[in-house]
Specification:
The protein contains seven helices and 32 strands. With 600 residues, it is α+β, with helices and mostly antiparallel strands. The chain folds into three domains: 111 residues, 2-Layer Sandwich (Double Stranded RNA Binding Domain), CATH 3.30.160.60; 200 residues; 261 residues, 6 Propeller (Neuraminidase). It is elongated.
Amino acid sequence: MEVPLKKVQAGPSAEDTTYCQPCEQDDEIFPAEVYCTVCKEFFCSKCASLHRKQKMSRSHFLLDKSNMPTSIGGLGIEYECTVPCDIHPEESIKYFCSTHQTLICGHCAVQNHRSCHADVISDISNAFKDDQEYGDVIKTIARLFEDINLCASDVENNVDAVAKLGVNAVYKLRRYREEVNKCFEAREQALLKLIEQMKNMDEERLESLKPKYTNLKSKLEEINVTLEGQENNMIQLFIETKRVKQLLEGMQNELADIKKENVIHHYEFRKDQTTERLIGSDTRLGTLKHIMTEPHKIASASAERDHGTIGLRVQGDGPRVNMATSEPTVRKAIGDLTKLRFTPAVDIPVRSPTDDLICHLSGILHLAGSRLLLADFHNKNVKLVDMQTNNLVSQISLPGCPWDICLLSGDRVAVTLATKGIQFLETGGQLALGDHIELDGECRGIAYHEDSLIVSFYNKKVKVLDMNGRVIRQLERDVSGKELFKCDAYLTVMCEGPTAFIYVSDRIRNTVTKLDMNLNIIKTFQDPALKSPTSISALGDQLLVCGYGSNAIMILDLSTGKMTQLIGKTEGIRNPMFAYYSRQQSKLLVTELLNNKIKN
């Protein structure tokens, strides 16, 4: 049952009293209970109830008696708000929810902010300009303008610095190239001069022999004529013959002297092994060193570059430039291969028409350029493959079954033959057989270091040999007489700073053992995921290890001793014998047991 509203009589004392505006139009005076912020009208409780029920006004936000304006006169001049609401674009923003610190419209107020404290923006914004919040925003804008101007200045400075860096780097590169050219030209001239000296020396010596043997021949002809003239006078012939015998002895001595002087210098040009490694290196001539620097300090970088490395400083955390960093000449940085993604490529066929058996490619050696040597154990030959064309170029038959190959100084390589020792090959032009060394035992892995050959044997030994095959030292058992290896498969020599170390794989013990050059054991690496390790090859401070029994190619981080699988059975690897990573072509080459192709 409705309680009738109490009608108030208007009078002079009610001048500032707020009344229901719709009721005033009907000449009824009732006190206002709420204020509609949309309609800008005061309502009594009855009109407010009706206002909330009507469809067109039910979403309007009503202020109660404690929050509504005190009088109509206090409303003053209002500015219309036309900023659309983000949630209800058809509505304008009218309120500020202090509970959620959010700008809202009438729909938002009714739907999501009924229990919140919301202020009418037109009411609270009058003195906002003098508020601290507005002052802080103005100050922030001013600071941002300053920061943007400073940033723009820094960017312009860095644009100039980048240009100077490029000019400086190109200048140093060209200057260094000129120095390299001068160095090689000087060396070429020295070699040409030496060749000319030897040639002139030999020519002069040989020219000096011509009159000697010509004179000797003339004397001999005179003696012969004299004897022929006395053939009918036996007495005179006897006398002349006795006289000639002494002359002939002297002439024989003269001829012996001529023969002694008839020697020449046999020489040939052989490529310098260090230069060959340089030509085959990805970092030949120099590198760009990637350095992170503080912002707007690039210009000072030019003073920090050395003679052999061109430095490049890059700012900020933007895209990284993939550049080679300078490393020691032997251990070059190649990055973490485990982070690379390997995709299958076309296999390289290597079987030739003259092969009798399925290929057993037990060894790989990368020569200068794109040439690749392969040891074919079953067919007793070494094959030469061009990695650019993926074609078999040539092959050469050997007197035994080859297992492993290592590079020597000059255009030579050494190949271990299972039961026949070591065979040397010339690789400068066509493959050609060189000297051969007979050894006891079945040879397996081989490496070369400072005019010595390091060889592993199937009968659990590692030996250091001179170039003639004489044993310098060997390792078979420890001081207690215990065998150190069960089945040596491969080995490699790796320079770590100024010191060289030997790494040997053991197929039975599933280990990789580190030795110093005196064959003292330094450390043994082992991992459950590595079974029957075969080939091992150096990659920076890592080793690429074939797991024959685990059907996987592993990476051994020498700094941590951790082994990580690079690729395995899921990528189609089956009984890998040898793995080689070509940095020039970013390719991983793998040979498998009894396979006529190289996985590429």
